[in-house]
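Internal tracking record. Fields below are filled automatically when a chain is submitted to the structure queue. Please do not edit lines marked as system-generated. If the sequence contains nonstandard residues, flag them in the REMARKS field before resubmitting.
Queue: standard
Priority: normal
Entity type: single polypeptide chain
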Amino acid sequence: MGNMDRNERLASSLQTWAQLETLHDLTYFAKECRASYKQLGVGDSWARYFGGRAAPMGKVGPGIVTAVFYSFAGRNVAAAIPTVWDTATPEQFVEARFRGLLAAWDRIMGQSSLAPDQEVVIRAGQIADKAALNGEPAGHPLYAANLSVQPPDDPVSKLFHAATLIREYRGDCHNNLLAVNQIDGCQAHILMVAIGAEERSTAQISRGYSDDEWIRGSEELIARGLIDQDQDMTPEGRTFRSELELRTNLLMAPLFDAITDGELGELQALTAPIEMAIAESSSLPAFRRTYELLTSN
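SYSTEM-GENERATED OUTPUT FOLLOWS
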């Protein structure tokens, strides 16, 4: 790949993020990852999610997790945190996360004609790691916490860890922008429903928001002109949402300043077959890819 202009580089960075995001997302949805947490004695799905994702921060309480994760109602978090630490320590969660990911990788790649050679995974991990370590910890709490995690000494775990750092960095950027623009966690999902990325019932159940909270959040967004009375996105709302995603991507992009145009193009090419192999395995729900496409526009 030759010299890229600013827009080409941003587009390539975003596509690479989406491909790495697919690898990271296995930890939430792959059956092997669920089984790995169950082996710790954590049976509840949301306890596994909050424990697994929050573990790099240590034995944190529900207030910190609610603030950092941003889009969950505090009551949902408090149902799992901190009691989950009585079942398994944060260190055990981190170990289980990598163990489950490796098991999922072995199954998926063992069944795929797109499975990369070890040299490909090593090279992808080397480039991804350069980008992943180029972030600013200040103001990026989940990214900063994951910087302290030492992945197992194998190529897949190292690539997964780099993908996780990049993923959480972008998420921290997005949450910061939501807060600056006075969009709370519930309203973030109201907007997701309005653009067709989620169903209201699913969002409310998974994030823990009551009907009253959803109605109140909707009324505030209607007053701001971002959605209409039918809770569909207004033209102003679509512009706002697009600008929010663009600004998120622009804040994420400096991670990739640590690698050259050639390395960025190489990383994109190396991780594309990995993304396709995971997609073919049906290990992730369809809405994950839909979400990535919506957030890239």
